[in-house]
Amino acid sequence: MIPAWMAQSDTYAPPRDGGAFAMRTLRSVGSALARLQIQRGRDGLRIPPVIKLLLLILGIVTLSLARNRLLLLAIAALVLSYTCLLPARTVLAVLRPAFGAALLSLVLFLPAMLLRPAGAGNNWIVIGKVFLSVTMVSIFNRRTQWNRITGALRKLHVPGVFVFVLDLTLKYVVLLGGLIADLLTARGLRAVGRDRHKYRSVGGVMGVTFLRASALSRETWEAMVCRGFTDDYKGL
Amino acid sequence: MRIIELDHITFSYAPDEPPVLRDLSLTVEAGECLVLQGDNGSGKTTLFRVLNGLSLPQAGVYRFDGEAVTASLLKNQRWAKRFHKRVGYLFQNPDVMLFNASVREEIAFGPRQMGLNEDEITSRVSDCLALFDLESLADKAPYHLSGGQKKQAALAAVLALNPEVLILDEPLAGLDRGTRARLVQLLSELRQAGKTLLIATHDDMLRSSLDARVYTLERSI
User: Pairing relation of β-strands B67-68 and B59-64?
Assistant: First the structure.
């Protein structure tokens, strides 16, 4: 028999409640992690992932060793030209972290640039290198699926156990990111008023995620043992 | 009175993906019970997400109690909170709904949010625990409950908010026979009390027991 209050409608006027900063931050982290799952990695040029990975490594090494400004400008022209070929939404997603990293470098270099204006030119070069490196990694990340990246690492004869651990880690990151996003969504649906214990909820979400991560790793291990795993990983 | 009205809505998760819901129109009267059926992947959970304002359709209009649910309206905190108070949602996977230290705390979360006094909160929590026979598990961490117990704890937590509309995604899945019968009885009582029920289920027993209208979703892809 349902209680009397459940058979009646509540007259409820919710208060305004600000300061959901921690929740918003956690939600954006969860969503970002969960987004790995839907990463498409379509590449109009259809470059094999191994070549892309090698080009990325070559590009970053060249960039970090380059002292000639002309070479740097040539790399910049190449990277930015390729960026221009990407869809507008991807360009934004690629350039946002690059500008962020460059800005952070600028802040770190600012005292040196102000105290020693003569060396500012070199500082700008380092900032430019940071911008280009992050742009390249970001393009690679946006245009290549994670499973293809790990596949490329295998083809480059990176030790199988390393690739396996990386693969599993990425899968867990996606799963746990999805869990955080779902937990916060479900919490948000029931957060219909003023939350006096926001940090308790944040702690609860973190705790559940930690427990789930622990259970997931145990279950994966058990499933591997059931399929004959004997601590000796043999890659494909 | 129409509480829910979907007018030719179309929804897809990404612009370059085919829509999960295509040109869907549906109305639900207040106090009605609607059972949603359809194959796996036919969009039942997606439809529930739209009805809860978690996903917004790319085309068409969703009206709740006569008001079009839009992004700007959902950004209005007071409106969104009132809307979520009125619409209770039981997720298919109860694991994602339980984040408190104990079942008691979990159920008390909603009433606390509403600013009820401690006596009212205690009374609501006791009533909800009794409804699902969860008294002996009240101080246990929800994480350590079995799948069926988690589902009941999650539903108890939703009911503690006393919503007018209950959206339940596979509420009977993973429950034993006795618990299923008790839950069907509870849903029947809620319906008699005037609650609007939208239930996704493959269970024919539930549909016939609640004398529900059936809406079948066809896969749009």
Answer: antiparallel
Q: Kindly tell me the burial class for residue A177, based on how many C-beta atoms sit within 10 Å of its own C-beta (0-12, 13-18, 19 or more).
A: buried
Taking the C-alpha atoms of residue A197 and residue B109, their distance in angstroms, rounded to an integer, is 10
Tokens describing residue A75: 């790399």
Name the residue ranges covered by the structural domains of chain A. Answer: 21-35+154-226, 66-144
| Alpha-carbon distance A59 to nearest alpha carbon in chain B (angstroms) | 31
Chain segment A22-55, per-residue pLDDT in tens: 556 666 766 666 556 555 545 555 778 888 889 8
> What's the predicted TM-score (pTM) here?
0.78
Q: Chain-centre distance of CA A165, in angstroms?
A: 17
The reply to whether B117 touches chain A by the CB within 8 Å rule is: no
Q: Which two tokens stand for residue A155?
A: 């083809």
Which string of b and e fits A139-159 if b means at least 16 CB within 10 Å? bbbbbbbbebbbbbbbeeeee
CA of B114 to nearest chain A CA: how many angstroms apart? 5
Task: Name the packing angle between helices A160-190 and B77-86 (round to 10°).
Answer: 90
pLDDT average, residue stretch A89-99: 88
The ipTM (two decimal places) reads 0.85
